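Summary for the lay section of the report: proteins are chains of building blocks that fold into shapes. Here we show the chain for Major facilitator superfamily (MFS) profile domain-containing protein and then a coded description of the shape we predicted for it.
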Amino acid sequence: MTAGGLWYCSYMISYLDISPEYAGSLIGISSTLSGLTGFITPMIVGALTDKKPTFGQWRIIFAMTIVLLIASAIVYQLFATADKQNWEDECHAKRSSRYRSYLRHIFRIRTKETEKDLEKNE
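The coded shape description reads as follows.
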């Protein structure tokens, strides 16, 4: 493992700490939001350096980057927690299993449970 890959393990485990059942969904949502910067950043840089790219314009771009990084670090330090969230409680588990059964019924997804139910009905 390279030194650059060590940071990946440290924050990826946070998703499992917060909610083991929904870690995949949380990773998907956060990756989508972070991927949007790949579209937004070139548009901002293009708008600021459209006519004549000068050192002053690039200073603005780098200053914006620094401010955003510091602000996100402060927000993370103030509000982030690794405590297990209430998404994992028993009541929510019942609701989510009911929701999953509705989705299986709507999309006709067969599982071992639905196969047993079908055999009982026949």
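Put simply, here is one thing we learned. The mean pLDDT is 78.
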